[in-house]
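User: Show me a protein chain along with its predicted structure.
Assistant: Here is one chain, sequence first, then structure tokens.
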Amino acid sequence: MSEVAERIEELKGEFEFLDDWEDRYRYIIDIGKDLAPLTPEQKNDETKVRGCTSQVWLIMEKDAQSGNLVFHGESDSTLVQGLVGVLIRIYSNAKASDIVAIPPEQALSELQLFDALSPSRANGLKSMAKKIIEFANLNS
């Protein structure tokens, strides 16, 4: 099992302990609070994720030693910041081939996140997922 698959399973297990979606939303928001803020220079048109109602920036760097992709991100919305955190928790420091093998839309579907979000939030989440897979495809 890849690290990405293990991380998805870990999150699924954590979500199962939460009674309802309100508790899951709070948990997702807490995940977002753990993200390091981006610098003002990192928040630019090049790093901005298009298709999100909220402001979202996503950055990828390649670890020189392992070749793994490392993600950083931020949003101006607390819930969306949490969703960015979920994606980063699953995909940061992973091999590009593992990301391509289990694309973000599949992972988010397994976590049932699309079902629990408004259509505009779900579209934004799909835009973030698309950006991650683009980074992986460029580096695989």
